[in-house]
Amino acid sequence: MPGSANGSNGATKAMGVLTVGGLVVVTAYTVALGSNGWLWFGWVVLGLLTLAMVATQNN
What we know:
By secondary structure, this protein is mainly α. It has helices at about 1-35, 35-55. The termini are close together. The relative contact order is 0.17. The mean pLDDT is about 85. Helix 1 (about 1-35) runs antiparallel to helix 2. Keywords: Membrane, Transmembrane, Transmembrane helix.
């Protein structure tokens, strides 16, 4: 249905913005306070979830 595809596009776009924002936050934290492996691990998981959403999106 066209309506559900638009909703999916919005969710994918929001997930992409969250992923990029997360990268900025994790990088700033690393620069200011030092590296934290769990933060980077969480960002990688978020990135993989975003890629999975993009890959499974219906066009």
